[in-house]
Amino acid sequence: MAEQRLFHSVAERISGLIDDGVFPPGTRLPGERELAERFEVSRVTIREAEIALQAIGRIQTKTGAGAYVCEEQQYAPGHLPDVSAFELTEARSLIEAEAAGLAAKVISDENLQKLDDLIVAMANSDEEASLAADRDFHATIAQASGNDALVHTIETLWRMREELPQVRHSYEAVCDEDAEIRAEEHREILEALKARNPASARRAMREHFLRLIGSMLDATEKEALREVQQRASESRQRFLPTVGMG
């Protein structure tokens, strides 16, 4: 099995050890070197396996402290953790920016043309087809990075975006209104990839998601204001006397 494919089986074996109680909830996993020796793989493969396990909520990586088994282990294979749209978009900004940086170095002319076509499809399609083109745009960049761990993680993030109701609602609240802005942002990402400029590709992808977070915050504030106004109106009707009544 190719080295870049090993992390799938290693992640499954670590998950099995967690289920068997070898690595109990709340405990720290052995270090990368020890795990690499245990499974007879490289430390890079261990790192990729841990990325995959973190994406499905089985472990949590703490900067400078290592990887820890999550306390609650009720996750079945494919289970999605309960996250907010803001948490998801923050994760996407970090992970997809790195994927874009890696892709900029090696992306093929064929994939660049595909991205160009997908941007056109996003603008000229109905809502469902536009979303599919958007997903394919990000998936193509992830695949062009050549890193299967990133591909798997980004696929999982997209599942959260589409399958978690509260996340889907937050995205739908802003994406239709921001269609022209999103198209321009995707074009800037593509131009950075065409220029084979990793730094520009990372920056364009990160700015795309940071702007999206800002739009979500604006939409959240508007929705909260509407709720306050609605409650105030209901209270006024209930408690204030009607003109002409004693």
Please render the helix and strand layout as text.
Elements: H1 6-19, H2 32-39, H3 43-55, E1 59-62, E2 66-69, H4 85-106, H5 109-124, H6 127-144, H7 148-163, H8 165-175, H9 179-194, H10 198-239
Question: Care to describe what's here?
Answer:
- The protein has 246 residues and is mainly alpha-helical.
- Helices cover 72% and strands 3% of the residues.
- The chain is built from ten helices and two strands, in the order αααββααααααα.
- The N and C termini lie far apart (86 Å).
Instruction: Give the DSSP E fraction (strand runs of 2 or more residues).
Output: under 5%
- What form results from the Cα inertia axes? flat
Order of helices and strands: HHHEEHHHHHHH
Q: Roughly what is the average pLDDT, rounded to an integer?
A: 85
Structural class by secondary-structure content:
mainly alpha
The largest sheet has its strands arranged as 1-2
Helicity, in percent?
A: over 70%
Most strands sheet: 2 strands, antiparallel
Work out the radius of gyration.
Answer: 22 Å
Which residues form runs of ≥5 with pLDDT under 50?
none
Tally of extended strands? 2
Number of helices: 10
- Amino-to-carboxy terminus distance: 86 Å
Task: List the main descriptive attributes of the protein structure presented here.
246 residues; two-stranded antiparallel sheet; 10 helices; 3% strand
Concise overview:
The protein is mostly helical and 246 residues long.
